[in-house]
Amino acid sequence: MEAGVHFGHLRRKWNPAMAPYIFMERNGIHIIDLYKTMAKIDESASALKQIAKSGKRILFVATKKQAKEIVAEQVKRVNMPYVTERWPGGMLTNFATIRKAVRKMTSIDKLISSPSYSNLSKKERLTITRERAKLEKNLGSIADLNRLPAAIFIVDILKEHISLAEAKKLNIPTFAIVDTNSDPRKVDFPIPANDDASKSISIIIEAMVNAIEEGLVERKLDRDKKAVDEDKTDLQDEDFDDRMKDEDEVENLNIKLPVKEHPDTMQQKIKSETEGSSEEKKSQRKRINKPVGRTRK
């Protein structure tokens, strides 16, 4: 309430599609329902958290004067790309050309750091530095963006209608702060709120950045846990290999390991030996010494 999140535009400027998010009208100004705003903030935050947890990039777009510094300051914490100057046309739909401009900026940096830069004339050096400053102003914040972003967050979709159209054309999920003069149906995750007050923008951007930060922390913890599990499995495999090697060595040396016999088999063996010895004694008794010579008829 203190930040003025609930204040909308004048009644004559409203968009009828925003009717579900409007609580009432006072002095010709629409008041936004903050319960629905909070629900939409939570929904958007959870979606952004999952995107950040998967390791993908989220592009923030805010070229309004009251949102530039807030977005740049907050988004730098999570190292995400952002655009706070003029939106370069075709940045998403013609991404390859934008990447060429970024590569040009890196080549200028290499030229400035090389000794051949000092051999250039003053006019040439001034031209190069001006071009470098221009590229840095427009593309410096997206220099690390090597591929298309997984999502885009927009402040004021009326002002940033070009970026919204490009994102929709490429089926990129869109998140946006939507005021009473905007159409929320154009955005995948609309947040009904005042997009003109700097305090209102700051509260919502901070909530989104905190959710992204949580997702990045969880991703790091999952990666560390996975690395520990892999180390454990490697140790178990090494122990198994050592055991197999020991068994192979024993077989190669022809060492017969003592085999424990079951008590029942031992008793049967002893019984069979005793029976065999008693039969031999009986056969010896039955033998009769016959005299050598003729037999009597």
Describe this structure in words.
By secondary structure, the protein is α/β, with parallel strands linked by helices. The protein has two domains: 1-89 and 149-250, Glucose-6-phosphate isomerase like protein, domain 1 (Rossmann fold, 3-Layer(aba) Sandwich), CATH 3.40.50; 93-147, Helix Hairpins. It has seven helices and eight strands. The protein has helices at 34-53, 65-75, 95-113, 122-139, 161-169, 198-252, 263-286, and strands spanning 7-10, 22-26, 29-32, 58-61, 82-83, 151-155, 174-178, 189-192. The chain has a five-stranded parallel sheet with strand order 5-4-6-7-8, with helices on both faces. A three-stranded antiparallel sheet has the order 1-3-2. Helix 2 (65-75) links the parallel strand 4 (58-61) and strand 5. It is flat, with a radius of gyration of 41 Å. The N and C termini lie far apart (143 Å). The mean pLDDT is 81.
CATH class wording of the largest domain: Alpha Beta
Listing every helix as H and every strand as E from the N terminus to the C terminus, the arrangement reads EEEHEHEHHEHEEHH
* Poorly predicted runs of 5 or more residues: none
Q: Helix content range of the residues, please?
A: 40-55%
Instruction: Please state roughly what percent of the residues sit in beta strands, choosing from under 5%, 5-15%, 15-25%, 25-35%, 35-45% or over 45%.
Output: 5-15%
C-alpha termini separation: 143 Å
Rg estimate, integer Å: 41 Å
The CATH architecture name of the largest domain reads 3-Layer(aba) Sandwich
Query: Average pLDDT value?
Result: 81
Number of domains: 2
Order of strands, widest sheet: 5-4-6-7-8
Global shape: flat
The description of the largest β-sheet is: 5 strands, parallel
CATH homologous superfamily heading of the largest domain: Glucose-6-phosphate isomerase like protein, domain 1
CATH topology annotation of the largest domain:
Rossmann fold
Number of beta strands: 8
Structural class: alpha/beta
Distinct helical segment count: 7
